[in-house]
Amino acid sequence: MQFTLSFTTLLLASLLVLNVQALPVRRDAGMITLPLKRIHQARDDIHPQMLLQQHINRGQRRLARMTGRQAPSEEQFQANIHNRMFLMPSGPGSHTPSKRYNRQGSKAPTNQADAGGIAAGIVAGINAAGGGSSNGTTTNTTNTTTTTTATTTATGATPSGAGFSQVDLTALENGGLTPAGNPSASNSLGLDIEANDVGYIATVQMGTPPRDFKLLMDSGSADLWVGAENCTSQGGNCGPHTFLGPASSSSFVDTGKQFQVTYGSGAVAGDIVTDDISIAGLALNTHTFGVATQETVDFSASSVPFDGLMGLAQSTLSQQQTLTPVESLAKAGLITEAITSFKISRLADQKNDGEITFGGLDTTKFDQATLTTFANVNTQGFWEGAVGSIAADGTDLGLTGRTAILDTGTTLIIAPATDAAAVHAAIPGSQSDGQGGFTIPCTTTTVVSLSFGGTVFTIDPRDLAFAPVNNNDLTGTCVSGISSGQIGGATEWLVGDVFLKNAYFSTDVGKNQISLAKLV
Ligand SMILES: *[C@@H]1O[C@H](CO)[C@@H](O)[C@H](O)[C@H]1NC(C)=O
Ligand SMILES: *[C@@H]1O[C@H](CO)[C@@H](O)[C@H](O)[C@H]1NC(C)=O
Ligand SMILES: *[C@@H]1O[C@H](CO)[C@@H](O)[C@H](O)[C@H]1NC(C)=O
Ligand SMILES: *[C@@H]1O[C@H](CO)[C@@H](O)[C@H](O)[C@H]1NC(C)=O
């Protein structure tokens, strides 16, 4: 049982996390990028053997459909992939997930007719290309409601150099959420930890009567959505999630307009609606957002421990072309500034003190003397800062003129290939897997740092070891938390939770500024 769960979780993790090439497409004027094309691009986040099996599975599904025969069961598809994983040179998990839920979406459609066609086309296309991923309704091998109970085996924070932590391994295998403690500031929500620091999730209330929805808090996109009551996914329903619609909310109003968002992995399409939402007790009545009537399995699977996303980049990126919740809160005068601040926590620390604060910063979470504020250099609406220097154990690697998109919705750090190679060259024992990924010793003590606004922010070496290559060898080889991929320009990094766990991170829409500070 444990065995199955472990492989399934790894599999789902690989499927959920994205393509490193999936950097959000810029909203270039008049250009619509059809993500369908991207599906067929060489992807470097999934092991070729697994990808091969996904292609085989997909072919079997297509053939079954074409000939009117019954496709093999989901179990058979999963088993095929498991079998294939045994064939991999270094076993399951040898090539791991890069980034999650980062948009690569197309420009918002300019008219409704197009919206329907594009949205349906994209979702249908992605579903058809869905590979070995499962149905969402039939997937039942992992338990969404599982709360990681790793505490019992925890021995407190693992010291750097001790190897991959047992706590993280348990979470990696079981998925689910580790709930945050109570927030320490007003206008704040706890940030639950998904699996082994894969994503960060807060609970907000939506509809009348208000019900709890779990939302992935994503500084790298700008749309809020949850599943619609009539949500479908690959012909099935959208899994064991909480949905919103006219049957469950008397204040729900469908505007009749449509939206679609394509992320690095997964896509949603649906209707733009208004309804009442409440965030940390701040009531946003008739807020405009989306309900997804179609989700790819990346969101509908029972292993996905959230009901939707809250995008907290700037609304210039919004496919729904509406204000983000923090912008709406500021506009309504419920908070004074459109500031969003993140304290994301590291599962291995067992503090569960993750928190998102709206309208300000929680000064109890960081060392105020280290608070560093710098300009957002991105003109599309992402949060991107100039990187002063990149160093390993204090030695400057000479990578100048770099910028970094700071994205809570991305798990790892994705660097341009030559930069990723330069960083790993400074980590003793690291190896390239030849496909953009790297392995490092799970026991590495090398401290990689990035500087912003003149302040050096170090990455705890524990965070560099993202997952063990062999779950039975936690002091052996680990998959590096820094991977490579084409992001934007040759000097642009995508910096996710591997880094952000090490800093207090705050964004300010009004001033178009980013702040980072060292944690206390
Ligand atoms: C799904 O999981 C639950 C709880 O583990 C179990 O009771 C149920 O039988 C499972 N359903 C299927 C279809 O496997
Ligand atoms: C999920 O796991 C939790 C904790 O182990 C358990 O209480 C719950 O019954 C499980 N739910 C399902 C559907 O299996
Ligand atoms: C699904 O729900 C949405 C949102 O309420 C609605 O606009 C749409 O018409 C519904 N679709 C069907 C097929 O009922
Ligand atoms: C997906 O789930 C639905 C609902 O249980 C089922 O009818 C459908 O056959 C499933 N599709 C696949 C491909 O398993």
From TrEMBL:
GO MF term list: aspartic-type endopeptidase activity
- Provide the residue span(s) of the region labelled Disordered: 89-112, 131-161
Protein localization:
Cell membrane
Start and end residues of each Peptidase A1 domain: 200-517
Where is this protein primarily located? membrane
Task: Identify the catalytic residues.
Answer: D218, D407
User: Which is a Gene Ontology cellular component entry for this protein?
Assistant: plasma membrane
Q: Where is the composition biased (Polar residues)?
A: 103-112
| Gene Ontology BP terms | proteolysis
Q: Does the keyword Hydrolase apply?
A: yes
Cysteine-cysteine disulfides: C231-C238
Task: Indicate, by first and last residue, each region the UniProt record lists as having compositional bias (Low complexity).
Answer: 135-161
The signal peptide here is 1-22
Q: Which UniProt keywords apply?
A: Aspartyl protease, Cell membrane, Disulfide bond, Glycoprotein, Hydrolase, Lipoprotein, Membrane, Protease, Signal
Family named by the database record:
Belongs to the peptidase A1 family.
| UniProt name for this protein | Peptidase A1 domain-containing protein
Q: Which organism is it from?
A: Jaapia argillacea MUCL 33604
